[in-house]
UniProtKB/TrEMBL annotation:
It comes from the Bacteria. This is Rieske domain-containing protein. Its cofactor is Fe cation. The lineage of its organism: Bacteria, Pseudomonadati, Pseudomonadota, Alphaproteobacteria, Sphingomonadales. GO terms for molecular function: 2 iron, 2 sulfur cluster binding; iron ion binding; oxidoreductase activity. Pfam families: Rieske, Ring_hydroxyl_A. It comes from Sphingobium baderi LL03. Residues 62-168 form the Rieske domain. Keywords: 2Fe-2S, Iron, Iron-sulfur, Metal-binding, Oxidoreductase. InterPro entries: Rieske_2Fe-2S, Rieske_2Fe-2S_sf, Ring_hydroxy_dOase_asu_C_dom, Rng_hydr_dOase-A.
């Protein structure tokens, strides 16, 4: 059998080695101190507006996955930020992002969530645009009057495809520097070959809460054996390996062991097989993308601010890591996805909604992240810096364990 994720073998073994060490010591990675987050960070309207601009208009976002836009002409709508973005693969195979707005009178060119076509023809007066966004035809041009068609292409947004993800900044003309944005994490991301994945399903997760409170649910495993005791009791309690990356340390990945990892303890590393089957790997791509990666599947959760500070929008997508999975494999993945969905919706998002009501009541001054929840501290330090709140005085590296 072919070894899975051969290019990340070394990184996977490093994670396994560190997890075994932590398990033997009965501990986890920690930061230096408890982090306090004022309740207002989740309630403040002005901060909310700043987040929508700084984090969702001026920061690179994963707007699609390569697996969602396989063929030339395939497209996906990305509207969760309030900007209707048309992500398209052109005839040359490049990913492009355009504002989904006709240059005549602004109508949406399409309302289909995804699809495949050679041109986008406006439903209003049939102006049509090619896959590079150029205005290809303007019906009754002689009657319409004198306009320079060359200047009336779709509004284009900076867009670049990397490691199976399509990034865009939702500000025309912005500079997107993915080399620095993803620095330190690219080898690992490349090694997963996310571009080979196949989309199996999508679903939304619902709760009434600020988007950051929902995002917090994904950043620690301290709650697994309590909130998810029925489902995740096979995980090792309070044990996780943490690594941050990116030019500002804004992204990270975590590894969470299953009890079965112990089976490797007395096996020489040269004989380790299917190492990754003994732990979960969770990536966070700042500011809003969570990817849970397993040998056979990838699940993606993307969290967005809703219409108000008290509303969020979570889009979940589930992929097979095979390029062409059989119907049987797809069904197995769908079943697994249904379990994850149920746990997240009925447990994590239920708790989140209740906690948000409590924050809204104004009775709580703050919430706390423990030393054993480093990724939460990192997340909120990065978000604070992203919105221009004074950053934490020191970068909080893992210092204990
Ligand atoms: S608004 Fe699109 S053709 Fe008129
Ligand atoms: Fe959870």
């Amino acid at each position: 059998m072919m070894m899975k994720d051969i290019e990340n073998r070394e990184a996977i073994n490093d994670m396994a080695r560190e997890l075994l060490r932590l398990m033997a010591a009965g501990t986890t990675h920690m930061v230096d101190d408890v982090r306090r987050v004022p309740a207002g960070d989740y309630l403040d309207e002005e901060r909310f507006r700043t987040e929508r601009t700084k984090l969702f208009r001026e920061t690179p976002l994963v707007v699609a996955f390569t697996a969602e836009l396989r063929e030339p002409g395939s497209f996906k709508l990305h509207e969760e930020t309030g900007v209707s973005v048309l992500v398209v693969r052109n005839e040359q195979g490049q990913a492009k992002a355009f504002v989904n707005a006709c240059r005549h009178r602004g109508a949406k060119l399409t309302e289909e969530p995804c699809g495949k076509q050679k041109r986008f023809t406006c439903p209003y007066h049939a102006w049509s645009f090619d896959l590079n966004g150029a205005l290809a035809s303007l019906p009754a041009n002689n009657l319409f009057g004198d306009v320079d068609k060359a200047t009336l292409g779709l509004v284009e947004l900076p867009c670049e495809e990397r490691h199976g993800m399509i990034f865009a900044v939702l500000t025309p003309g912005a500079v997107m520097d993915l080399d620095s944005f993803l620095s330190g994490g690219e080898d690992l991301l490349r090694g997963w070959h996310l571009e080979r994945n196949t989309l199996v399903g999508r679903r939304d997760l619902e709760t009434r809460a600020n988007w950051k409170l929902a995002l917090d649910s994904y950043c620690e495993n301290y709650h697994f054996h309590v909130l998810h005791s029925a489902d995740f009791s096979y995980k090792v309690k309070n044990c996780a390996h943490h690594v941050r990356f990116g030019d500002k340390g804004q992204h990270w990945y975590l590894a969470w062991p299953s009890k079965s990892l112990e089976e490797l303890r007395n096996v020489p590393e040269s004989e380790w097989q299917d190492v990754h089957s003994h732990f979960s790997i969770l990536h966070f791509i700042y500011p809003n993308t969570i990817m849970a990666l397993y040998p056979e599947t990838l699940s993606v959760k993307q969290l967005y601010p809703g219409a108000s500070v008290a509303e969020q929008n979570t889009k979940m997508a589930f992929f097979s890591r095979e390029a062409d999975p059989s119907e049987e494999v797809k069904q197995l993945i769908q079943n697994r996805f249904d379990v994850f969905y149920k746990v997240l919706q009925q447990e994590d998002y239920w708790v989140c909604g209740g906690a948000y009501k409590n924050l809204e009541s104004g009775m709580l001054p703050e919430i706390l992240f423990g030393r054993n929840e480093p990724a939460l501290t990192w997340l909120h330090d990065a978000l604070d810096e992203g919105v221009g709140v004074k950053p934490a005085e020191k970068v909080r590296e893992i210092i204990a364990a």
